[in-house]
Amino acid sequence: MISIAVIFHAAIIGFMVFFSAVVAQSVFKTLSQKAAGAFLRVLFPRMFIFGLILSLMASSVAAYDGVAEMALLSIFISTGFVLNAFVVTPIINKQRDAMLEGDENAGKKFKQFHFVSVAIFLVQLITSSYIVVTSIIHSL
To answer: For the chain, what is the domain count?
Structure first.
């Protein structure tokens, strides 16, 4: 039987893939660069907080169910959402603003922190996928 915690991780995978494959592509194809930037500044923190809520719920359920590995991996994923929402994204926004004002060094920092954000996102996606796949295999 599949745990509710696994369902939370499936939801995490779903929203992350949907954002990457649909939202990001659509934003940059339909909005001006300025409008896209404004939209994403609102979207990213909310998306990360949504992921934080889902991963904390998964952690709580896994801990309650006595599945320590899943609970710890869920906390690991939660930490990534906290870092992206409250540390990395504000730095990215600050560097983007400075870059638009002509600070060439800020452009390099923007790219570096954007890379960090994407790397965290990918690790979270892979970890949630690992949880879902291993849970399905163990339930067979």
So the answer is: 1
Tell me the per-residue pLDDT of 24-77, one tens digit each, with 9 for 90 and over.
889 989 999 889 989 999 999 999 999 999 999 999 999 999 999 999 999 999
Taking residue 17's Cβ as centre, other Cβ atoms within 10 Å add up to 12
Domain containing 101 equals 4-139
102: left (phi over 0), alpha (psi -120 to 50) or beta: left
Residue 6 pLDDT grade (very low, low, confident, very high; cuts 50, 70, 90): very high
Q: Under a CB-based contact definition with an 8 Å cutoff, are residues 54 and 11 in contact?
A: yes
Question: Residues, the chain, total?
Answer: 140
Q: How far apart (Å, rounded) are the C-alpha atoms in residues 46 and 75?
A: 19
Q: Using DSSP, state whether 32 is helix, strand or coil.
A: coil
The residues, any chain, with a CB within 8 Å of residue 89's CB and separated by 6 or more, are 44, 45, 48, 117
Q: Is the dihedral of CA 131, 136, 139, 140 positive or negative?
A: negative
